[in-house]
Specification:
The complex is a heterodimer. Chain A is mainly alpha-helical. In chain A, 78% of the residues lie in helices and 4% in strands. Chain A is built from 15 helices and four strands. In chain A, α2 (27-53) crosses α7 (182-192) and α3 packs across α4 (82-104). By secondary structure, chain B is mainly alpha-helical. Chain B has one domain (5-283). Helix content of chain B is 75%, strand content 3%. Chain B has a two-stranded antiparallel ribbon with strand order 1-2. In chain B, a hairpin with a 2-residue loop joins β1 (135-138) and β2 (141-144). In chain B, α1 (5-35) runs parallel beside α6 and α4 (73-92) packs across α9. The radius of gyration of chain B is 19 Å and the shape is globular. The chains are: A mainly alpha, B mainly alpha. Chains A and B meet through α5, α12 and α14 of A and α4, α5, α10 and α12 of B.
Chain lengths: 316, 291
Amino acid sequence: MRSGLFTFLAIAVAALFFLGLRAVHNEYLFVAGYVVLQFVVLATAWNILGGYCGYVNFGSAAFFALGAYTTVFFHKAYPLPIPLLMALGAVVSGIAGLGMGYLTLRLRGAFFSIATLALAVVLQTLVVNWDYVGGSRGAYVIRPSSLDVFGLAVPYVQYLFVLMLGLVVLAIVTARTIERSRLGFGFATIRDDELAAEASGVPTLRLKLIATTISGALMGMAGAPLPYYIGYLQPSGAFGLEYAVNSIAMPMIGGTASWIGPLVGALLLGTIQEYARVTISSSVNLLIVGGLLVAFVIIAPNGLVGLVTQRLRARE
Amino acid sequence: MDFPLELFINAVIAGVLLGGFYIAVTVGISISFGMLDIVNIAHPAFIILGCYIAYIVNSTFGLDPILVGILMLPVFYALGAAVYQVYYLSFEKRGQEALRGLAFFFGILFITEVGLILVFGVDYRYVEAPYIGPTIHFAFIDLPYRMLIPCVLSLVMLAVLELFLSRTFIGRAIKAVSQDQGALALMAANPVRIKRIAFGISIATASLAGAFLIIIQPIEPSVGREYIGRVFAIAVLGGLGSLPGTVIGAMLLGIVESITATFYGPSWAPAVAFGFLLLTLAFRPSGLLGR
């Protein structure tokens, strides 16, 4: 399928999804749906580096929180429309990704992973000690209750939902485009055998830096609307381990080989968690994620998508 | 304002004691990450598990936490050997340790932490022992027993491990497996068995480290996360797989952290370890004593 057609279809599916939810007349669906969509973006972004290049990023929460705190910063200085804030979040987190990659990507893969963990803690400490963005007390971001679109009052949650839906389309189209381009083949050579790739003239460092930058920027964009969504942002919330673990678990469970895996994994796990959060408790739902992650990497290394394709191939 | 010399000296001494304890925390990583190439980021979770076992036994039977740590060594060894067996069969054998092995340990870290939260809640827990309160005063220098004892015992533990690694057959085989598995197999030692033993030992150290940790400070399940950065910072700083390097790295980090906490406030201390780690990775990835 050509990219233009794919983009058009993705937008159409997203629009249908939104109209379908609106038809139900239940605001909660948008509140919960926003979180699930946010995880789709995080999982897809993680997979660009983790699934395509084979570099495990444990610091998704750091890039995500950077986006969120960029918003807090500008909210205090000069309130800007959210789409612009998302672009700014992308720039800040993208630069962080580039810097991070530059510091560590010349080393063995495991060092990169450990350094991403380190980055999350360093950034959290900086934010905790930085009073302007609220420090450890957190920051309030009061959002209007509705938005005026051509004389129609649209509830603000729906506005945020649509923005996140747009971002999902952007992330998935980006991931799919990369997959089918020279860039994607370059990434695959790094994942399969970096030394051989380097020896055959693949500019591995440059490719890895591109991957960390794109991945970081998408995560930052996902975080940018967060302060408006929750209204009160504190460091331990923005840097929560649940973002890090989910953005790893979702692609791993869905399948890391293509853009479908993170999408499936995030929709499935995200929905289960939103369901468990209201019916059981939020600690238990994290235990579910951890357990599924371990079970899947041991039993089904290629994820749900891998299981399905295996089944289809066996039938032929 | 005068430079507060007494405060500074006390901060350095507190840092040395803290560094001594960091040796116990890091030595397991030095073995698993440094020698076996297994990126066990779940190590701090095992340490916290050790803390909670010391806490349970101490609060129900009144047993000394360090004694509990020693009694639990075989249990942790068995746990480590079992984890390695799963890791070997699922990842090393299939050659997938890079991506999925890391995710596996991340999952274990997470399950342990959330499991402990579900059982014990997020309240801080502590142990009772006669040596936790008192302090030796020597001129203006303070030496609290609760720091001194873990520090000394950590050094003893390190010395025992170093002797074991350099003098016994299995110890030398562990050092060899980190250099050349194929050659080791030719010497009629099974690399998988040797690695299982080594990984068991690395997890066993977590039992003692956990007992020390809960003596030093009250514990709640997510404390382990702060130690992820510390242990890897120390292991990398000292040069991977080098036990003497571990001592230097641990002492350095302990001193710098203690000085930071004394002069700039404890909320900055976590960033120090990670800052150190990032700088080391960027400028001297083979560590201070690295080859």
